[in-house]
Amino acid sequence: MDHHFGDCTPVMKRRICYCGELPILKTSWTEINPGRRFWGCRFYGKVGCCDFFYWADPAPHERYKSVINGLLRKRNEVDKEKVNIGKTARFYKIALWLLVLFFVLRSVF
Ligand SMILES: [Zn+2]
Hints:
Elements: H1 5-12, E1 24-27, E2 37-40, E3 53-55, H2 62-108
Antiparallel strand pairs: 1-2, 2-3
The structure holds zinc ion (ZN).
Residues 17-19, 21, 41, 43, 49-50, 52 line the site of zinc ion.
GO molecular function: zinc ion binding
Transmembrane segments: 91-108
Domain GRF-type: 17-59
């Protein structure tokens, strides 16, 4: 089910979720709704939360979706690359320390 901006108005006038709390503005990062903001229960994911949910932004255009999803994929690739670079750096750091240790021990004995 897809809510549109116009659907929000009557419920947003309540300005409280079914728990009786003020909802909070969050951002969706799913492939279908990347970067689209919505109002949700502040206790979402916790025991006893309600299912209060309304889009704050209109549905994104296909072009916008493909650009944002492409950028998100690129960012994930960069994150993975950073992890690999970190692993390589740790390997060389350890190798360097072992080399230093080797030469120190060799000069002592
Ligand atoms: Zn709630």
